[in-house]
Write a structure and sequence with these properties.
- It is built from 65 helices and 32 strands.
- The relative contact order is 0.11.
- The longest helix is centred in the middle third of the chain and has 46 residues.
- It is flat and about 130 Å long.
- A hairpin with a 2-residue loop joins β9 and β10.
- It is of the alpha+beta class and 1869 residues long.
Amino acid sequence: MSTNESTLANGQPGTRLSNISEERSTPNSTPPETKRMSPGDSGPSVVNGRVPSSPAPKTYAGAYEPSLTVNIRNIEADVSYGAVGGTHICLKVLKLVLSILIGIIVLACLTVSRLSIIGITKTFRSQSLLWENDSLTSMCRDNETFAETAEVKVMESTVVMVEYILMFPYGVSLFRSVWNGAFQASMPWPHVKAAVLGVVLSFLEVFGLCLFTLRVMPSVAPSISLVLSNGIFFVPIILQVVKHSIKLSKVRIRKHLGLFFYILASIILALACGGLVAAWCVYRAEYNKWEVPVSLLSLSVAWAPFLQEYQTGEGTEADHSEHTARSKKKSRAQDVTVEDPDGIFFGRQKSEIQVQTVDHLGSNVKENARWKAGIINNFFKLVFVLLVPEALRMMGLVEICSPWAWAKPHLYTEFNMDHPAIESFIVNVCCSFGGYVLAWMACTIRMQFFGFALPLCIATNVAFTIAYVEGLCKYVTLFIPVETCTANLEELEWDVPVTAGLLLIQFLSTTWFVMRSPTIVMEREASLFWLPGYSGVFPEQWLLLSRKNRNTKSEDFIVQKRTRQNAHVYICTTMYHEAEHEMEQLLTSLRGVAESQVGERTFESHIFFDGGCKQGQPSQWALQLLSLMDHTLKDGNSKESIINQCTKYKTPYGLQLHWDLHYDNGETESGMSFNIHLKDNTLVKNKKRWSQVMYMSYILDYAAYFSPIGVESRAIADTDIKATSVMGQDSFNGPHRARLYMKRNASGAGGWTAGEFNDDQYLQIDLGEDMVFTGVVTQGKSSTSEWVTRYRLLYSDDGELWQYYKDDSGQPVEFEGNRDPDTPARQLLDKPITTRFVSFNPVQWNNRISMRVEVLGYSANDKDRDNFMLATDADVKFSPQSAKALLDIMTRDPNVGAVCARTHPLGSGPMVWYQMFDYAVGHWFQKVANSVLGTVLCCPGCFSVYRAKAVRDALPTYATKVTKAEEFLTKDMGEDRWFCTLLVEKGWRLEYTAVSEDSTYCPEEFDEFFNQRRRWIPSTVANQMELLRKWANGQMINDYISRLFILYQGFLLFSTMIGPSTVILIIAAGLELVVGNIGGSIIPTVVILFLVFVAYALLCVYTTQETQLKWAKILTMLFTVVMVIVLIGQAREMVVSFQRLDARLRAESSGPAPSEEEKSCLECLRSGDCDDCNELDCIHPIEWTPGNVTTWIAECISDFGTFADNISRHFGRYDGEQLSLASKNEMCDEFDGPNGDFQMERDCQIIYAQFHDKIQNAEAAPTPSPPPTILQQLPLPISVIYFLGLAGLYVITALLHPSEFMTLVYGFVYLLSLPSGYILLIIYSVCNMTDRSWGTREIKTPGADAAGRSFIETLSSILKKICVCCQRDTPFEDSEPGDVVLPPDDGQINLAFEEDDESEVFDDLDDEGDGAGAYEHDGAAANQTTEDDNNALSSSVAKLAERWRFKAKEPRHVTGPSERRIGRQKSRTPRGRRASVSSSNWGSWASRKSHSPARPSVFSVALAASKGGKSFTRWRAGSLARSGSQTFVKDVCDWLPYYWPNKLKKKYEKKFRENGFENTTFISGMTDKDLQAIGIKNDFHRDILMKEIKKLTEFELPGDVPDNCREWLFSIGLDQYIKNFENYGIYSKNDMASLRSMDIGELLKDLKITKMAHINRISKAIATMRSPDESDRRISQVKSVISKQVKTRVMQQDDGRTREYKFWDTLRRECLDPDIALFSSDGDLRGKLVELRNMWLGVLLITNVLWITIVVSLTYIPELRLWDANPLSLLSLLVFGLLQLIQFLAMLYHRLRTLLHYIARLPYPLKVHAIKSIGSSKAEITIEDKAAVSDPMPSAGDLLTRRPTILGGNRRKGPTTFKTNPLFDNADE
């Protein structure tokens, strides 16, 4: 029951109930009978075993007016941004082992880091002790050279090392803060107070660390850092005491005793902590006693979590109030006015509504200030580290000689391995950083206990043990100096107890809460730690205090738990014409989700079926889906068919089928709500985008208001559910058992049972935060006969004073409860209540007061916080773990608007192989690079999760219609990519995770693949251009879109544009390597290839798609052969290159080969018969003259004595020309002979050989050879290096994806298909961008004879047309419009009509002839039946009537759905349809003309014969009632528009009848081409007729083989051809079966059937004849059940669905009505698309021509070459190689994150349950009836203030979307 509560009746102030019993009743308590439901009070009737929702009294009818996000206007305003199955046990054990291993490493890093700082300070102390009796300062002052001594330099350099140990963490943190925050416009800077406090605390931190490390540790004892380090927790404990004390002062102590005792214990811990430090300082420290507490106190204040929180902007409660006030003030300044002209939002006419803008990031904006606070803090810390040590030196606390030691260059020379502290310095820097990273990673991957809390807790004590136990210390001296070890037993007397005591204080005050603070998967650092940074001195203390925990930030963990457990995920699927196995795959995946849904994340499934019904009846495709549900979704324990459990509603868009799926899962039932929305395309717009608009708007504008708040999902803790009394044991029947669908088990009962049975029993629920309470769901107690039949609701803001939910008269409303223990009863409130506490007050019950409940509503601060949409395709396969892995990312980062998964294609064949590699490369590199570098640009609707808040931002634009050609490419050709572009434009980040995987079927046939990519390629390019354009214009305001990311996208777009020319150049170069080139150049080859593709482009422009695809197949085969040659050429080049490399390496290893003269000289030397051979190596002169030659020779051999003179004189007698003409013998023979000089002869020959080439030309001196270029110095050609590098990257990538490694094999198919994929496909896509059809999964239309056939069949058909000898004459092949037209082989004219078995067959048959019209046989057309024939026909028809009397209620199956896609996936052979056509299909035969050749159907004939009718000449219309609508079979003259003139109607009636379209059964399914074929040439008239045809229900042809020919002809409405068939010899069933193997054209020609409609129907009917299979039988049964046994409810008449009906009706009228586009200029859009196509073709042509021209020109112009190569080619290789390298590095990073994500999702072998808080389950209720208090009901303005708008925040001035109305209307306004 609902109520409309606008005011509360005046009454007395609330008083506390005093009669609530404090005692529990015993189990044997007898409940009073006065409140029991009377036996006669049975309530509303039960339909199909289900209890409908209780009706709401009409007097309390709500004023709900749907608020449509799609209608939100853009307003200029100043806005600123502020796997299936369980996990294997081995993997669980692996996670445990990894956790322990990481914990050990973290412990080791922290321990060694602590010991290393001790080693450094001991080095400093040992050096300072050298001058213990003298003042170091005075010695430095008196002796100027004292500072240069080695000992002083070691000491001062040690101080510098300590400073750098302090600075290194600050430098790293500053860099990370700048990287993450400086360039993020949406991240606010901390407010002034927080910034000032951050600077002060930064000073205190640096001062404390410097004082402790440079003064306390060297002067007192280095080991003090281990003993007293946990004293840092003193101030944090004090501040927590203050914080909780303030909180306790605002509540009643009696109800919060736990908090009181916690405060008391914290005070004790604080006193103990301070006492231990003070005692140690008094009794243990001999000197500098005050420095110890001062330094520790400074650090304690600086690191206090309460103060860290303040620096991030979250601050104290008072500061939060101030921040809220500022926000409200700022929001008021940004209020905008929105007109509501239709008054549909608040029921007002032209009202004005004030809307407050809110950032879409919500409350997370404050947390983002941590990074910019980190910039400020770490910058000042670096400055203070440089200043504070100098201040301490000036104060005499640090004794060193040099001022500003860090600025002395000579000290850095001491930083070498000889320095005694260098090892400790390096170890500290590395280990502190490594320990911090690993500790943070342990929290991120949910290893917090073993990897974070435990190591941090014991690290100090482990270091203490090692330092004090000499036997242990010596084992770690490899990393730290020996001096670190301390073995002084006297020190242990104080150090051990103080250390142990402080450890206990640390554990109880902090570590305990850290251990109990769970983390989510891959949680961000900002959610784990207050501020960025770490410490190298006290690493574990900083990490523990900086870590958020349940004590310091409890609300974060509450919200985190609610977000994780109370997330409501809507699985939204768009479906059209999927095959049976594809539908089954989806349903199986949904079954897995439903069975795994226990305890967290409520899933709800919605399937939106395009064309799923017509005139209230499910289509055959929808019936196919329904027929699979018993097999896939039915609970194994249920014997009833799942179809019988359906609730069917008639809706404004068609039909809605609803199920509540439940599966027995032990303690609780798993399951989910399952809904199928069957769209009637005559009522709403078709296509995927509008289905997406439907489910997005449904979730945002309706379902989000009534989401479960968290009782069932356990987001509400057991301690938050209380009751006034409990029967028996509280643990068994207590209020914590009152969760919806709770089942009885060993732990307790299936519901709460009150211990007393009176009107004063209450079940109280603490919602945890302010929620907008909109409804409840109740059940009785499981497995009992106990339930509540009536109850009242109460609500409270504080849990103390309560108010009843009242009606307009001020009386408490009594809601209708349950009628059985298990059926949920849903009640929605007419007006929402913003409250925190809700209570149920039973007033009537059956047997006992027992309840299970759920509360409906949404967060008052953020309506969309817990809502997500999981978009899937209708053929997708996924596991529950994959769905949850996507939600991990959404839960981790509130800035993520969508997450997509790794999609694997399914199927077989070469086209699938190509796509498998294509998908792999796209995910391995492109999607990963986008995700890492900025944001993913497309989260496909195949399998992606969207955040509801993000969808709300983009939906208003997404739901707009197409007005421009460019918009058509983005909106209707690639709707998923465009929607993601809108999300990115609104500032959201999209991510990709490889942990989540899904599989989907991809096109297996060439045509289907090309048609799919025909949509994808232009859409991708258009969206990339839109992204670049908006970014350039400043409209893309997104922190994740950087200049580098835009540059990267620009390169990708450019590479797509030049893809065709690049492939052409690759082919030409490859052919040149194998077959050479034409005319010594590749230019002719390039020109020929280019002309081939230009010719294909012209073919695509001027021919049909069928022709285009045929030629694309031919060219693909040809270029596959060409690519084989290209690959052979590339392989040859690689082999030759390696051979040359091998030869070069061999030559280099063996040295240069000697010349002949050198060999002779060497032989001479070996024989010992000559002196050393003389060789010359000098530069020749510019001009060759005798003098130059003499001088040159003399200079070259000046050291050779006499030989030099003789040989120079000998050569100097000749000039250069003479030397060039002389031979070796002529020059050297004079030294030969008996008196010759053998050595001189040998040297002459050597000199002649060395310089012969240089002196051959006497006119000009020869030029030296140029040095080798960079490319020539490479071991291999650059192209080979690039190819091998690319191959190596792919191999490494595949190895990192081991499950996908074999995908590399398909890369060979991908390479062979490069011309097809990069040229033909691009040309085909651009040329056909004017095609607005979907291209896949569509019912094929006549004219596409190649469609639906395999590639081999198509090729065979083409060869038959080419080969004249293979052709055969086909009748009607060249027919003109109006002549006989044969359908294609697959019979695509769909003239199906559906039946309704509940409707009447006929009203009656008028034998008197007084009907609306008369019918007479026309013998001219059909060989008039004789009397004998009539007798025989009567006998046959009587038999047929008896047959149909029994079979009419078992509808036959239309085989199209189950085979349409299977045909594409397998044989591509279309299967026929079969359906029984009820007599109602032939209802109205009014005004029939006597010349009409049409015959009545077999049903009408049979019925007339059974009644003894005369001759079936006159018929009266019979109506078919389908869910409240009337469907008639009309004669063509009745069907034509009534308002047309009679002359026009007769004209077109004649054309229809002449071609056989006598009635609507033949007319339905006609296309525009059919209308033209029958002679209707007027475009206007055809448009009118097509709109009427689309409203007709298609005729269904029988698919089984009939008993005889007569029966078959009657069933298809062509009984006038009985004689024709019988005269041809066709009688029996066997004869009918033989028709399938005949040539239909020849048969129809012989039968003299010439009318187009009759030819089409007979051809299709023959094609559909087949024996029914199992699928047919299932669909037939489902159709019978869904039409006869499942009653259709009218949604607006169902009190529980009136709001939903109102929503759908408003959405249909405002956005989805097909008539909205009646006046859109379709012709103009076509023209614009042609212009756009031509422009794109021109751009593509010019770009590729220019690219080829430039590349070829640079190749053949030597002056423009760089390093003897084409500079543009080199630049291309460099750029694309760099892009590939960037993608590879991004892949490596993403694989690491994927590995961590996978590990984080693994459970431990033994699950350890967290300790639950124990609290009282006793509820105390005080009823308050406010008198002088204002109306508690929120006004419209209040609702708007409490709930976020569509796009909030304050980014910058620009178009912003605002929401204009809440869900509920306030009637008083």
